[in-house]
Design a protein that fits this description.
By secondary structure, the chain is mainly alpha-helical. It is built from 10 helices and 3 strands; from the N terminus they run αααααααααβββα.
Length: about 230
């Protein structure tokens, strides 16, 4: 698809004009020749996203603070916003402007927030509500939501004023360029000691997530990993 058509679609998605300086500021971070305005808009977008996600979750009748925290982080996290930016083809716009520049994951994540911040500056909060609903719909349909088992487990323990679970990852094999890891998570709840071991993964992060998921399963809390928090 030609870059000009991607830009047109992107501007329409965020209810902005292609010629609007705010739109251009929101799609070019410093690494792509942009200025401080990009960071400014991203900060606005970050705050607005949290506000509107909270409103969306509240409409769904889930007022438990633990559920709210889990739901917010299942959407408002680096991975989900990165995948949304890829879906909207923002990277192609950036690369088309500066072919020698390598966009970071954070650039792409912040571009979604910056575009939302630009919409707020130009059109106000009501326009942002519609856009956030559409972005959540994309995340659900494309399976971009990224519930964090470690974060969920931590919320559960913090709400009970318990010591948060401890993780220990160990290399269990594989060559240096493709190491294999297994993680053990331990915790204590209501006098009971828990210990779960992950399957084997090529990254410590994935091993830790798997161990946390097994812990949640024993606690009967796997439902918190479901993408049922949002109303679209």
């Amino acid at each position: 698809m030609p870059k000009t058509k991607i830009i047109t679609q992107l501007a329409k998605q965020f209810q902005l004009s292609e010629e609007d300086p705010l739109f251009n500021s929101a799609i070019y971070p410093k690494s792509c020749g942009g200025g401080e305005e990009f960071k400014y808009l991203a900060l606005y977008g970050d705050a607005i996203l949290n506000l509107l996600l909270l409103e969306n979750i509240s409409r769904n009748g889930r007022m438990n603070s633990g559920h709210i925290t889990v739901a917010l982080h299942s959407f408002h996290n680096d991975d989900t916003l990165y995948h949304i930016s890829k879906n909207l083809r923002i990277q192609e716009v950036m690369e088309g402007q500066y072919k020698t520049t390598s966009m970071t994951k954070n650039d792409l994540k912040e571009s979604v927030e910056a575009l939302l911040g630009a919409t707020y500056q130009k059109n106000g909060l009501e326009s942002c509500k519609e856009i956030v609903t559409n972005l959540v719909q994309i995340a659900i349909e494309k399976n971009f939501l990224n519930p964090n088992p470690k974060g969920i487990l931590q919320v559960i323990f913090q709400k009970k004023n318990l010591t948060i679970p401890q993780y220990e990852s160990t290399r269990v094999g594989g060559p240096d360029h493709q190491q294999l890891f297994q993680c053990t998570v331990t915790g204590k709840d209501e006098g009971k000691n828990y210990k779960h071991q992950s399957d084997i993964f090529t990254s410590k992060k994935e091993a830790e997530k798997d161990a946390a998921k097994k812990f949640l399963a024993e606690l009967g809390e796997l439902k918190l990993l479901e993408n049922s928090f949002f109303r679209v």
